[in-house]
Amino acid sequence: MSQTEFDLVVIGGGPAGTSGANTAAIFGHRVALVEKDPDVGGAGLNFGTVPSKTLRETALALSGWRSRRLFGVDLSLRREANIGDFVRHKDAVTAAERQHVESRMRAFGVERFRGTASFVEPHIIRFSQPNGRETQLRAEKILIATGSSPYRPPEFPFEDDRVHDSDELLKLKALPKRLVVVGAGVIGSEYAGTFAAMGTEVHLVDGRGTLLPFLDGEVSRALADAMAGNGVRFHWKEKVTKCETSKPGEVVLTLSSGATLSADGVLVCAGRTSNTADLNLAAAGIEPGKRGLIPVDEHYRTGVSHIYAAGDVIGPPALAATSMEQARVAICDAFDITAKADLAPLLPTGIYTIPEASFVGETEESLKEKRVDYIAGRARYAELPRGRIVGDETGFLKLLFCHTDMRLLGIHVLGEQATEVVHVGLVAMLAGATADLFNRACFNYPTLGDLYKYATYDALLCRRGISWSDPTFVK
User: Fold this and answer.
1) 157, 355, 390, 415: least surrounded by Cβ within 10 Å?
2) Would you place residue 81 in the very low, low, confident or very high pLDDT band (cuts 50, 70, 90)?
């Protein structure tokens, strides 16, 4: 069996894998990337992040959702949108981004191999091509970036073409008229909003009693109210105990309360499992944890000093942005590159529900638990001209400051472009800013950036015992 020498072998061609491979190649190392699928990009590009967010934008456009907020103007399509309308833009965006990723790897000199990879020993990878031919790749350093796959609970018959996991959903042949989403996590909540915007009757089932409990409580409640207002029907503190597909054209779900739900489509979002089962990690001296997760240190090094892991394969936060940064940190550590020593201490979370939600830093609940004396300042989209221009009547920005020195501790945004708006606060927090920064800053008018100034004013006034919402106070 032939063997080829590399400085780095990357297993997996998703966001973490391609970023890690490119980083090493940029600094002059010979890099091989092994991906079993014909296309690079992983779940982030082919099944999850990019396509699902593109579908969301398509749903908003086809349904006229945004225009309906503008004083009741309806600019939705005057015909029923079909599945072709729904996926066309998604396919175009995904293909363009995939081509971009592949061209960058070629430009940097990354050698790509299509096939499956498994360890022979800690420095040697067996690469099996689709035609059965095998090659061994030997590397000084190895990065595992094989991502994750949707977990499939045994009570759901996924062989039925009406029962889907989050990867399969993108292959729909028709838009469901009634969709039950099982699991109100990030993925389930995002898809629930997207299909509701397209006119599908959506039921969201979850065993908990709170939407996305890691969010600031005020944001969680406001998001749940907004989603309900957009047509999503919640079934809290319920679990699916049975899924029957015997009736033609109808799937019947039995809930833990004894209630039943019928639909022509079911989406199961029950978490994800790391793609490590076929890697033969034992041959490398690595023992995975629950659901295949690979334990790593702060530099993303496994228990074997020359083997690193990044992205979904190591667990939360399992976001494309953090996965790419983790891989860059890992490669810089592996080859003593000084460009990036560690991951930023603050990582933003973006949730592409309708409306969007995003945050970074502390929540009110976490500050109370830590007994930190804080003050909150709020600014609502509807109180600013830019918010009224875009027709957002429910969005808001909440800033959390330390009461003593007014240092910024947390940013929480719900509403139009929330995942963009949060970045202003993220950079401010990374710089250790206080309320004085936003007090002094001048933002373009009218913009959503002005939310920061008015949320800061609200906090400063509250600190003086004056309520910004007091109708007697002239703003």
Assistant:
1) 157
2) low
User: Which pTM was predicted?
Assistant: 0.90
Classify 426 as helix, strand or coil. Answer: helix
CB atoms near residue 293 (< 10 Å): 18
Residue 396: left (phi > 0), alpha (psi -120 to 50), or beta? beta
Count CB neighbours of 327 within 10 A.
30
E runs forming strands in 152-239: 163-165, 178-182, 201-205, 232-235
Helices (H), 2-118: 15-26, 42-46, 49-63, 65-69, 83-108
Q: Please give the Cα distance from 452 to 354 (Å, whole number).
A: 22
Are 375 and 404 within 8 A, CB to CB? no
Q: What is the per-residue pLDDT across 93-128, written as a single tens digit (0 to 9) for each?
A: 888 888 999 999 999 999 999 999 999 999 999 988
Give CA–CA dist 388/59, Å, rounded: 22
> Whole-angstrom Cα distance, residue 217 to residue 207?
18
Sheet holding 201-205, edge to edge: 163-165, 265-268, 178-182, 201-205, 232-235
CA dihedral 336, 339, 343, 348 (to 10 degrees): -160
Q: Quick check: 77 and 42 in contact, CB under 8 A? A: no
